[in-house]
Batch of 2 targets.
Target 1
Amino acid sequence: MNAVEAILRALTVILCAIGAFYFFIGTVGMLRLPDFYSRTHAATKCDTVGAGSILLGLMLMQGFGAITLKLIALTALLLLSSPTAGHALARAAFRTGLKPWRSPEHTEGEDAT
Amino acid sequence: MDSFFWGLGIFLFVNAFLCLLRAYWGPSVADRILAVNIVGTKTLLVLVLLGYIFGRPLYLDIALVYGLLNFAITVITARFIETGRLTGDWT
C-alpha cells in the first residue's frame, strides 16, 4: 500500500465516521424533538449530510470507474429526493391542520392554541 | 476495511431500529411516514456497504431501485394524506 492509497483510506474512514455521526444526530433528533416539523429538520439533515458523506467516502476509496458512476447517481438521487420528500410531507401535514409546536414560555401571554 | 464496514452497517442498523421506535410512538401519520423514510435511507446505505463487504457491485443497483421506491412511497403517501385520493388535481 503506497502513500496515496493510505491517505485515501484514511479520508474514507474519516468521511464515514462523519456520516455515522450525522446519522446518530438524526436519530436523536427523531426521538427527542417535540413536534413533527422539527423532526423533519433532523430527518432531512441526516439523509443529505450523513448519506452524502458516507457515499463520498466510498467514492474516494473506489477510484474512477463504473461503480463510482453508480455511487454518484445514488448520491444525486438522495440529495434530490430526500428534501423533496420532507417538503411534501411537511406541506401535507400543514394543510391537514397539524399545528406547529410552541414553547411554553412563549405562549404565556397569548391564547394557547 | 471489511470489519470497519461491518461496524458501520451494524451502527446504521441500530439507528434504524431506534427510528422504528418513533414510527411506533408517532402521534401523527406524518411522523410515522417520516420515520419509515429514514429507515429506508439507512437500509439503502446498509445495502451499499454489504455490496462492498461481499464484493458484489450488483447490490448498488438494488440500492438505487430501493432509493427510488423509497422516494415514491413517501411522496405518494404525502399526497394521499393531503388530498385524500391518488388521482386528479392537487386541491
Target 2
Amino acid sequence: MKRLSLLVLIILSAVFLVLLAPSVLQPELYSIYNESSTPYHSNPATLQEYSSERSEDIQALMQELLDTPQPIVFNIKIRDFEEAEREFEEYREKSEYFNDVVVNLDLSESALGDFSRENRRNMDALERMINQSAGFDEINRLEVRYRSEENPALLYTISYEGEAVHSALQKTATQFRDREPDILEISDDLGLNTTRYEEAVSMLGEIIEEDRKEQEERELNRPELNISSLSLSVVPDSGRYGDALLVAGGYTYRRLPEVTLVLDSRDWKTLEPDANGIFSTLLPIGRIRSGEHVIFATTGTLYSNIVPLTVIPTDTVLTLETWPGDRWAEVFCYGELYAGPIPLANAPVRILVDDFEALTVETGQDGFYFGSVNLTRGNHTLQAVFDDPAFPLNPSESGIQAVAIAPSVPFLLAVSVGGGFILLAFLGSVWYLRRREQVMTAEAATFSRTMPGPARAPPALRSPVDTLIRYRDLFDAGEWSMAAVLLYRSLIERATPLPGPGEPYTLTPRELADRFSATSAGRPLRSFVSRYEEVRYGGLPLKQRDILLIHWNAVLAVFEEGLQTVPGGNR
Amino acid sequence: MNTRAIIAVLLIVLAAIALIAHLSTTTIEFSRYNGDWTGTSGLFADLDARGARDLVSYDDLAGRNDTLFLIIAPNSSFPAGEAAALRRFLEDGNTVVIADETGVANDLLERLGSSIRIQPGDISSTEMEFFDYWSVIVYPRHDDPLLANVSAITLNRPSAVNGGESLVRTTLLSWDDTNANYHLDANETLSSFSILAREPVGRGTLYVFSDPSIFVNGMRQARLTSDNAVFTKNLLSLQSGILVDQSHSLTGGADAVLAAAIWVKNTMVIKISALIVSLLLVAVAFWRRWI
C-alpha cells in the first residue's frame, strides 16, 4: 500500500511537472494583458471603456462648418459686419474643436483631415473678406462724406483706393470659389449636404458684382482736378518691398510754410519747402499693401496733381525649424523670413499646430523669428505661415515639421520613485549598520575582557564552563559564526602573554596560530583556526559535536598546562 | 482503509479532477471547449439550452424545415457535395447564417450561388465601444427579424461583406486598416462598410456576417452599450430548430487529448468499454487490497 501510494504520488508529480514544464522559462502563468489580442480580436477586458458614438456628432459638426459661411456671407452682403464678426468667431471656435477631434482621433490623413484643411483656408478667406468688405464699405461712406464736403482731391484718391480694396476682395473671393470643387467632392464623400455652402459661394459672387458696379460708378464720377501750380512727382513710380521712392514737388509763386502729403486719402507726412519752394522726401516701401496707390500734396486750398504709384508684390521665403524645449511638451520654433535677399523685419509669422494657429511671433530686424508652443502628447504638425496683406509681399508657408511628443513620466511620480529608492537605500543602510553594530557589540563584549585600559581593571576571564553554556545557547539559536567567535575570543583571552611582541587581539587567527607555532599549542591552535575560518568566514554550520569544540578543548588544555616550546616548530 | 489510504485516495481524486479540468478545456480560438475570453463556451451553453444539435454529416440537412444552420468561424473549405446539400437546405426554406471574417467561406458562397462575398480586412471606425478603433459600433439599416430591438452592435476587429442586401453597416467614418498599423493612412479612405448582408436563396435566406468575434466569451461578458445580447438572442430564436456546423468550424476545435476524449464520449461502444475497464480496475484494486 505504502509503495503504491508512493508510486501514485511520483506519477502525479511527474505529470504535473510535464504540464508545467512549458511555463518554466516564463513563470508568469497568466496575465490578462499578455494575451490581450489575437489575430481575430482584442480582449474587451483589457480595453479602456470609451463608447464613442461620435460619428453622427462629427458629421453634424462638419455639416455646421459647411453651412456657416452662408450666414457670414449673407451678413457681409447686408453690410452687418458686427453680426458677421460674431458668426465668424463661432465658426472659428467650431473649426478649432473639429480640428482637435481630427487630431485626437488621428484622422489627419483622411478625408476629415482634408476637410479640416480646406475649412481652415475658407476660414482665413472669410476673415479677410469681412475686413476687406468693411474697408470697402468705409470707402463708400467716405465717398458720400467727401462729396458732401466737395473735396475733389479726396474723392479722386478714394476712387483709387476703392479699386485696390475691391481688387483684393475679388482675389479673396476667387480663392474661396476656387476651393468649391474640392470642398464639394470631400463633402459628397462624407455624405454632407452642400446646398448652403453653394449658396454662400453664389452669394459671394453677387457681392463682388455689386461692389464692382459701385466701384465702376465711383470711377465714372471721379472728379477732374484742376492742375494747380503746386506740383508733385514720384520717381520711380513703382517699387518693391525695401525700395524707396522719391516724392518731390514745388510751389514757386510764394514760399509755403508747410505742405502735407496725402497717401491713399490719409495724411502721411508734413514737409517744409525750402527757400525755392521745393520739398522732397523718400517713401520707403515697407508696411504698405501691394497694388495701386495715389499721393498728392496739399496746403490750405491748394492741391497738387495726383500721382499714382504702384507697389509690386514680392515673393517671400519662410523657413521653420523645431527644437525640443526646456520643458516636456514644449517645442521651440524658429526660422527666417526673406523677401528676395532682404530679411523681413517686424512681420507677423503665424505658427500653425495641426493646421490651426497656435502662436503669432514677429520677426526681428534680421528676419529671424523665435517662439515656443506647448503641445499635447502625440503626433503633431507645425507650420509657419506669413500672409499679412499689410505688406506688399506674397504669402509664404514653411515646410511642415512633424513633432512627436512622447508620454512623460509625471514629475511627482518620478520624484516619488526616486525618493522611494533613496528611502529604501537609507533604511537598508540603517539596518545594515545596526546589525553590524550588534555584531561589533557582541564581539566587543567578548573582547572587552582582554582589552587593556588605564582606568579599567582587567575583567575576569570567562570560565570554560560559562563559555560552553553561552556556546550552547548560540549553537541552539543557529548563530554558528558567533559561537565560533566566542570560542576564539576565549582562547585569545588566555593567549597572553604572546610569544613575541604585540597584542593578540590585533592579530588575525592565522597570525595568532603562527605566533604559537613554536609552542605545544601550535598544532591544536592551527587545527582550531582552520575549522574556525570555515565556520566564521566560509559560513559552514557547526555540528553537534563539532571538531571546533574538540580543538578548542585541546588548546585550552595546553594553555592550562602551560606552553612548552617545541624544537623546530610545530607546523 | 487506514488514514494513509484515505489521504492517498483523496489526493488521487483531487489530482484526477485537476487533470480532467485541465484536459477538458482548450485555448483554441472560438472553440466551444474554450472557457476563456477567446472561446465560445458561453454561446454553446445557450445553444445547448435551445436544443441545438451538432451537424455530424451534411446529408443530415436533407428534409429539414424551419431550421437554422450556423457556421461560425469556418476554417476549412466545403466540398462540392456539402455545398450542394446546403443549397438544397436553403431552397427548402431554411436559414443559413455564416459568420466569417477570413474569407474561407467565399468558395461556399460562390457554390451556393450567392453574390455575397467576405472581404477580409481590419475594419476600423471612430465609432468605437472602447478606446480601440477595431471595437467598431455598427448600426442596422434595414428591418429584419435578426435585428428586432437592436439599435447597435459592437464588433471586434471585423471584416466587411460585399453584395447582397446590406442590413448592418458601419458609419461613414470608418476605414479598412489595410496595413494593420492602427492608423488611418492617406491611402485608406473613409467609407461605410457592410457587416451583415442578407440574400434569398430559393425559399430560404442566407445571412453572412463578417465578425464571428461577437460570439466569443470575452465579447459576451463585456459591458457594452450596444445590443449584442439581443442580436444573439434573435439569432437563436430565428427558427425552431438549430443545427451547428462542427466539421468546418473553429468552434469544434480541440487539443489532441481533448479531441480523443470527445471521440470517446461521442462513440457509444468505446464509452461502454471504457466504463467496464474502469470498473474492472477498481475491482482488481480492491481484490488485491491495493486500497
